[in-house]
Design a protein that fits this description.
804 residues; 17% strand; elongated; transmembrane helix; Macrolide_Exporter_MacB; MacB_PCD; ABC3_permease_C
């Protein structure tokens, strides 16, 4: 019986070669896209899986109700008191200076080493790296303790047996207490060296509001993190608010409302990469992955729709076969099993071809996402095979049920082809297919418009020809180093101007603090700078004046703010110049001397934050954070000037340190890369969808028009013109297209509006993509169907009318 079914299947595949190839092509493309996106998602979810304590470790994130935002910062007293007061908490790990680098000297060599981290002493309790020299116990107990990776040990000492060795950097001598091996597998916590934060953790009840650390919390086994979060808010955040409000004349609740944090969120360690709201290690975009995954599933569904449509359209060709098999005793179940087998064979072959195509496309896919994914995870095979089973079920059940339901007497009479049976089913499924196609066209055009809008928006600054150079800020007096470098760099041919700014567009590095005025408080970013920095960046002054080196007050308490700062306080420009405010990072009040036009420091996805700018000498501790020098180059010889600066840097400025630089306009452009990739992916998916849909439409129209050839012959014999016949044959498909587009419009409007809500700077929902989608689908449908319709008008009348 099985052998007979296979023979029948092969005969039908050959007889309907076009639809068979279209089904194979559509399913292969759909399954390939599904597997690639699934691999991407699986890779993003695989971070920190190696850690045996991952089920107990959570990353800390504070929620600020006033700004509706999450922050990853925590103070030492908050963490210390949480462990002391909440019994469900087992331990905490504090960290800072993530990714730091130093020029390290040993008795063997001197080399620059980056990717370090400064942590509290219990790091190896949270991240049990394999120790290959020394001991994890007490490895980070003192200020001069340091643990290094196997790679760093080989680089600095030529051996991994480096415990007890000495390293000198940052004007201190450090003792290597442990050499560890970084675990294999995806992880965001892969430091090349680990320093102790013991010197920063001396008084557990001082600086409650100094959020200079990130934190991981370890809860006891079986503890519900939601229960812990409630206790943390009640016992710790309210305690912090009560201590802050003491002596201020306000209630603890008022203090919490003004300064926060108001709540806490714990994200499991293994969800750090993809699900954390705020992270020191960078976050993924789960929403985009879900969108891509959903779209890949839609393509598979589209391919399944093609399958269903073509199989039901072939019904008239197989009606007599069904009638004969039923007449000789075939049961409905056996017929359904046969049709399921035919569907499964196509789906299985598509799955095998999709595996081969996935392997072929994987290098390009990895390059696009900057990954190293391999097709060796059994989960991918299992999930994709499960998808094949679902497609087989969807694509096989409807045609099998439909075909097996034919009555033997009706089909053997030979007039089944004139029946309207199944038309509503095919038309409904075709409408769904065109709805999906319309969604992709509209969505792709809106994504393209949003990305184009962001690329062309006036950013409020000019970063062209401005070279940003990072230097070693760990020197005793980095501001004096900047001033020396400024003098020496100005002598290099091709240098037009020089300045310093702490808050650099596109760098992601900035500080923020509370700004208080009477009973008001806002959160604002603060950027120390040189006198000329804002003019240097081409920022527009709206009111007031720039900082002036001739005025002593401009290094004491003068500040320039942006429009967002003034608006956040609810002031007029005149009020801004009259009202002195108290910044949380200083103990004196500041006065505003100038207001500048808003300009973007980070991605256009976010609103411009309130920012205060002031001279780096204005606050003692800010002088210690002068970390860059920015050089504007003359346009006539940029490459030559860069080479001269590079030579100066390696021989005079910082010998032994890497020369790291970038041009600010190009660095800011990287903030668009994520959305440009989304645009590219949407374009590719759009092309795939249209290709699958149009091929399916062509095959379906071919089969349906073939069933009407006798009607065409009769109408032609009665004198109908070719134009009339073509329109008559395509009219049904055009109406289906019109209905599909109108159904897709509200769906697209809602979904794309939700996507646009993620952008602070966005286009208004345009009308033209909906019109373009309507016109494009109408034209393509007419073009595809009319090809077959035109051929139908050339039928031989004798062939179809000789028996009439």
């Amino acid at each position: 019986m099985l052998k007979n079914w296979l023979k029948i299947a092969l005969i039908n595949y050959k007889k309907n070669a076009l639809s068979t190839l279209i089904n194979l092509f559509g399913l292969t493309i759909g399954l390939t896209g599904f597997m690639l996106i699934l691999m991407h998602w699986n890779d993003e979810e695989s971070y920190e899986k190696w850690n045996p304590k991952k089920d107990q470790i959570y990353t800390y994130q504070a929620y600020y109700k006033k700004d509706k935002a999450y922050g990853g910062g925590i103070s030492y007293p908050i963490a210390f008191n949480a462990l002391k007061r909440i019994p469900e908490m087992e331990d905490y790990l504090l960290f800072t200076n993530v990714g730091g680098g130093y020029k390290m000297a040993t008795k063997y060599t001197t080399a620059f080493q980056q990717d370090g981290i400064t942590v509290s002493e219990n790091f190896f309790n949270f991240f049990p790296f394999t120790i290959i020299s020394g001991s994890a116990k007490g490895a980070l107990k003192t200020e001069t303790s340091i643990a290094v990776s196997k790679q760093t040990a080989k680089k600095l000492f030529g051996t991994t047996n480096a415990a007890g060795e000495s390293i000198k950097f940052d004007n201190k001598n450090y003792i290597v207490t442990a050499v560890y091996e970084i675990p294999e597998g995806n992880s965001q916590i892969k430091p090349e060296f680990i320093m102790s934060a013991a010197g920063q953790l001396k008084d557990p009840n001082d600086q409650w509001g100094t959020y200079s650390f990130g934190a991981f919390f370890m809860l006891k086994k079986g503890v519900d993190p939601v229960v812990f979060q409630k206790k943390f808010k009640r016992d710790i955040l309210q305690l912090k608010a009560a201590l802050g409000a003491k002596g201020s004349g306000m209630t603890a609740q008022k203090y919490m409302d003004l300064y926060g944090p108001d709540d806490v969120l714990l994200t499991p360690l293994e969800g750090l990469k993809l699900h954390a709201k705020a992270s020191w290690f960078g976050t993924g975009d789960f929403k985009i992955i879900m969108i891509l995954f959903t779209l890949s599933v839609l393509i598979v569904i589209l391919s399944a729709i093609n399958f269903i449509n073509l199989k039901t359209a072939e019904a008239s060709q197989r009606a007599k076969e069904v009638g004969v098999r039923k007449a000789i005793g075939g049961t409905r179940l056996s017929l359904m099993m046969q049709f399921f087998l035919e569907t499964f064979m196509i789906c299985l072959l598509s799955y095998i071809l999709a595996l081969a195509l996935t392997e072929l496309l994987l290098p390009s896919f990895n390059k696009f996402f900057n990954k190293e994914i391999r097709l060796n995870d059994w989960h991918i095979f299992a999930y994709s095979l499960a998808m094949v089973m679902v497609v087989t079920l969807l694509s096989g059940l409807i045609p099998a049920f439909y075909l097996s339901s034919f009555k033997a007497i009706e089909t053997l009479k030979g007039n089944f082809s004139r029946s309207k049976h199944g038309v509503w089913l095919r038309n409904g499924i075709l409408t769904l297919q065109l709805v999906i196609s319309s969604f992709f066209i509209i969505g792709g055009l809106i994504v393209h418009s949003q990305v184009k809008y962001m690329m062309n928006k006036d950013l409020g600054f000019n970063g062209k020809q401005i070279m940003m150079i990072n230097f070693n800020e760990n020197s005793p007096k980095p501001w004096l180093k900047y001033e020396r470098l400024k003098t020496e760099l100005s002598k290099i041919d091709g240098v037009e101007d020089i300045s310093f700014g702490e808050a650099v567009a596109g760098s992601g590095r900035s500080s923020d603090s509370n700004m208080d005025y009477q009973q008001q408080s806002i959160n604002a970013k603060h950027g120390s700078m040189d006198y000329n920095y804002l003019q240097f960046m081409g920022v527009k002054l709206l009111k007031g004046r720039w900082l002036d080196p001739a005025l002593a007050s401009d290094t004491i308490n003068s500040a320039i703010v942006n429009e967002a700062f003034v608006k956040k306080f609810g002031w007029t420009d005149e009020q801004a110049f009259q009202n002195n405010f108290q910044p949380g990072f200083d103990n004196k009040k500041y006065k505003i001397v100038g207001i500048v036009k808003d300009f973007n420091l980070k991605s256009l996805k976010y609103k411009v934050d309130p920012v205060i700018f002031f001279h780096y000498k204005e606050t003692d501790w800010k002088r210690l954070y002068v970390y860059n020098i920015q050089v504007k180059l003359k346009a006539n010889d940029i490459d030559g000037t860069v080479n001269r600066i590079k030579k100066f840097w390696g021989t005079t400025a910082e010998p032994g340190y890497p020369f790291t630089y970038y041009f600010i306009n190009k660095e800011f452009a990287k903030t668009f890369e994520e959305y440009q990739k989304q645009q590219t992916l949407f374009t590719i998916l759009n092309a795939m969808v249209l290709m699958v849909a149009l091929l399916g439409l062509f095959a379906l129209s071919s089969l349906m028009i073939e069933q009407k050839l006798k009607d065409v012959a009769i109408r032609k014999a009665l004198g109908a013109s070719d134009q009339t016949l073509i329109f008559g044959l395509t009219r049904q498909f055009l109406w289906i297209t019109v209905i599909a587009v109108f159904i897709s419009i509200p769906i697209c409007y809602y979904l794309m509006n939700e996507w646009l809500k993620d952008f602070a700077y966005r286009i208004e929902m345009p009308v033209w993509p909906f019109i373009v989608s309507f016109c494009v689908l109408l034209v393509l449908t007419f073009a595809v169907v009319s090809i077959k319709a035109y051929k139908a008008t050339k039928v031989n009348l004798v062939t179809y009318l000789k028996y009439e």
